[in-house]
């Protein structure tokens, strides 16, 4: 149930009389989101306050709560008063009047409003409110990297809930539960198969299965999308080519698209990873990435679908070349194509230019596509961030990216306003997060990681929301209202990303985790001497990537003037991105006055110390959390405390051995 547990709360004071006793649901069709809203209300009120409420479909006037769309309201209940203009998927929640009104611009909106109301009640909040809430963006997607054999790439919560043995699964119970969770945080589409896509998703049997999955998601207002393998016409369709401009290829994709939409008339669209990490793409035929994106865009357009085309395109590089830089790849590939993408193409851009690292500057691509729709790509699954074995609340990281001002044309240009489409007046925009839930009962593999999924949904709806406030809602819904529980989990969570950064990759070194195989645990040597381009360029005397225009890779020049100037100059580059932009001696002094190497040593101690407090903080909650969850979380935090020491010593020893510079506090090399 995640945060939708509807755990019992005591009903005190006017509680019972403030709760609705009868509900009018303005749509009697069982598969409609408004109907689902009614069921959810019934279950919620029963679960939280033990109150049984009757549901009717027409008795508008005599019910104490009405849920429906604006149109349904007018039809069944008469004119609506005081509701401001609602945007697509928006809702109006009014608990001030005689009866509670939950009115959506559409059915989805009504369901979202219902979950909002239930979230208040489940947090014991009886404040009288009346307000409208509208989404900041229309793309609020999640991606699952589920393989057809049931494994999940970078998934840490067990096998797929969608696929097994190259087929879609029969029992869709978990799919329905996932739909419920996602709808409650206003996610409106899910791509169910891995971006490293297997063409057999397109067999008739599997498309029938996709249709069944879509049927389960639909009542929750969630559309299904599919990842495509660019070479499918050849490897799966038997054509001699997959050239995106070849007539037979275009016809093949038309047929496939028609077969899909016949089964899933509201399919959200396609997600495409091409010319990336060995995936086939248009470059095989010297076609542009826009040729590829537009091929699919034209196919899904008549059905109202969109194409999410991933910006994650880069080549293997040579570290001996000082100016080679993977961080430059996205702008190099895409900037020149700005304006050439069809209007239902959205470029899906990872938040930073490399790959979900613990610290990256915002991708400069956001500043370079004013005539193209964009969405940001985030990860809920903690691929590089401890893989759910470490507590890392990631929302504060996302917020730093959202709030970065890229100063395009010397005007305020927050990433959040670019990605939502606001800054450049694009109709489409928003976000996609790689979630990778599995069949594990905790969904992601660990209870505390669910704060990231919850926060993702909340911030997809409103990226201006506060990460800590969102977290507190999640804690209350998940673990109850006890003050100490809320304060403790808040503190641990808010400390977690900074701590993880301190012991796994500080000063903008991006990450020191193993990048070659597992993406887990310390391996500072793995960054260099290979073609992946996640280099630290560490040697005996110095470290960091010189990404300046004057002396380095030129990456800083991909940002608009003001931002470029800030990063170009070592004096104005923030310490937490120093080694991202500059190559310096270990003895270089930071703004704090410390040398780089001493900061490394100290930060690894501080980060590990903080991580070691998580267990004791958690243990102070003994008796306040059910034994099962208490022990499950306890085991992870115990492990994290130990692993943070492994991290600390592995990294500190590595740089001590490399630089030969002693630790002023005489810890490193002496333990
Ligand atoms: O982060 C890297 C991962 C790959 C992933 C790729 C991508 C799905 O290591 O596992 O492939 O990024 O985002 O496409």
Throw out a few tags for this protein:
TIM Barrel; 6-stranded mixed beta sheet; carbohydrate metabolism; 18 strands; Alpha-d-glucuronidase, C-terminal Domain; Chitobiase, domain 2; Alpha-glucuronidase; binds 4-O-methyl-beta-D-glucopyranuronic acid; polysaccharide degradation; 3 domains; single chain; alpha/beta; globular; 671 residues
Q: Which fold does the CATH topology of the largest domain refer to? A: TIM Barrel
Q: What is the number of domains? A: 3
Small molecules (ligands, ions, cofactors) in the structure: 4-O-methyl-beta-D-glucopyranuronic acid
Q: Classify the helix fraction into a percent range.
A: 25-40%
- Sheet-strand content, in percent, reads 5-15%
Global shape: globular
Q: How many strands appear in the DSSP assignment? A: 18
- Indicate the structural class: alpha/beta
What is the averaged pLDDT score?
A: 97
Q: Give the terminus-to-terminus CA distance.
A: 45 Å
Task: Profile the largest sheet.
Answer: 8 strands, parallel, barrel
Strands ordered across the widest β-sheet: 7-10-11-12-13-14-15-16
- Helix count from the secondary structure assignment: 19
Low-confidence stretches: none
So, the CATH homologous superfamily of the largest domain? Answer: Glycosidases
* CATH architectural name of the largest domain: Alpha-Beta Barrel
CATH class of the largest domain: Alpha Beta
Please compute the radius of gyration using only Cα atoms. 26 Å
């Amino acid at each position: 149930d995640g945060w939708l547990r509807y755990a019992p709360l005591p009903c005190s004071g006017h509680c019972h009389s403030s709760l609705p006793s009868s509900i009018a649901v303005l749509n009697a069709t069982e598969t409609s989101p408004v109907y689902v809203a009614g069921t959810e209300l019934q279950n919620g009120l029963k679960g939280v306050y033990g109150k049984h409420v009757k549901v009717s479909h027409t008795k508008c006037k005599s019910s104490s709560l009405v849920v429906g769309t604006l149109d349904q309201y007018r039809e069944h209940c008469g004119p609506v008063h005081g509701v401001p203009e609602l945007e697509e998927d928006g809702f109006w929640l009014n608990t001030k009047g005689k009866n509670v009104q939950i009115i959506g611009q559409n059915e989805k909106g009504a369901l979202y409003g219902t979950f909002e109301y239930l979230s208040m009640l489940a947090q014991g909040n009886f404040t009288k409110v009346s307000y409208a809430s509208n989404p900041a963006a229309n793309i609020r997607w999640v991606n699952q990297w589920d393989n057809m054999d049931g494994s999940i790439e970078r998934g840490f919560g067990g096998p797929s809930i969608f696929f097994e043995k190259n087929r879609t699964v029969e029992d869709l119970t978990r799919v329905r539960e996932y739909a419920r969770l996602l709808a409650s945080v206003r996610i409106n589409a899910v791509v169910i198969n891995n971006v490293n896509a297997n063409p057999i998703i397109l067999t008739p049997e599997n498309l029938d299965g996709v249709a069944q999955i879509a049927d389960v998601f639909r009542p929750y207002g969630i559309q299904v999308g599919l990842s495509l393998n660019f070479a499918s016409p050849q490897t799966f369709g038997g054509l001699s080519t997959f050239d995106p401009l070849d007539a037979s290829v275009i016809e093949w994709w038309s047929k496939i698209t028609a077969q899909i939409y016949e089964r899933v008339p509201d399919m959200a669209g396609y997600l495409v990873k091409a010319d990336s990490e060995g995936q086939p793409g248009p470059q095989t035929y010297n076609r542009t990435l826009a040729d590829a994106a537009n091929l699919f865009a034209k196919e899904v357009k008549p059905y109202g679908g969109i194409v999410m085309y991933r910006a994650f395109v880069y080549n293997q590089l040579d570290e001996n070349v000082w100016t080679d830089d993977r961080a430059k790849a996205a702008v190099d590939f895409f900037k020149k194509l700005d304006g050439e993408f069809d209007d239902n193409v959205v470029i899906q851009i990872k938040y930073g230019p490399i790959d979900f690292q613990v610290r990256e500057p915002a991708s400069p691509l956001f500043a370079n596509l004013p005539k193209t729709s964009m969405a940001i790509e985030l990860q809920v699954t903690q691929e590089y961030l401890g893989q759910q074995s470490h507590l890392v609340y990631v929302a504060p990281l996302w917020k730093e990216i959202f709030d970065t001002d890229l100063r395009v044309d010397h005007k305020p240009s927050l990433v959040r306003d670019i990605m939502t489409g606001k800054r450049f007046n694009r109709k489409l925009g928003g976000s996609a997060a790689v979630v990778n839930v599995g069949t594990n009962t905790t969904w992601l593999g660990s209870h505390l990681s669910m704060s990231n999924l919850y926060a993702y949904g909340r911030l997809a709806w409103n990226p201006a929301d506060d990460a800590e406030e969102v977290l507190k809602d999640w804690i209350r819904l998940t673990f109850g209202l006890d003050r100490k529980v809320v304060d403790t989990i808040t503190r641990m969570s808010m400390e977690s990303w900074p701590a993880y950064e301190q012991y796994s990759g500080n000063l903008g070194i991006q990450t020191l985790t193993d990048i070659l195989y597992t993406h887990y645990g310390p391996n500072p040597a793995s960054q260099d001497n290979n073609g992946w381009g996640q280099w630290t360029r560490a040697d005996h005397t110095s470290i960091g990537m010189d990404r300046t225009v004057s002396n380095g890779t030129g990456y800083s020049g991909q940002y608009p003037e003001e931002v470029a100037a800030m990063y170009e100059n070592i004096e104005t580059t923030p310490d937490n991105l120093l080694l991202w932009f500059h190559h310096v001696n270990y003895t270089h002094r930071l703004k704090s006055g410390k040398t780089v190497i001493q900061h490394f040593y100290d930060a690894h101690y501080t980060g590990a110390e903080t991580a070691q407090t998580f267990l004791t903080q958690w243990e102070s909650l003994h008796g306040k959390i059910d034994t099962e969850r208490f022990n499950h979380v306890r085991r992870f935090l115990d492990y994290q405390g130990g692993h943070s020491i492994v991290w600390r010593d592995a990294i500190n020893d590595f740089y001590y051995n490399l630089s030969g510079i002693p630790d002023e506090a005489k810890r490193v090399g002496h333990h």
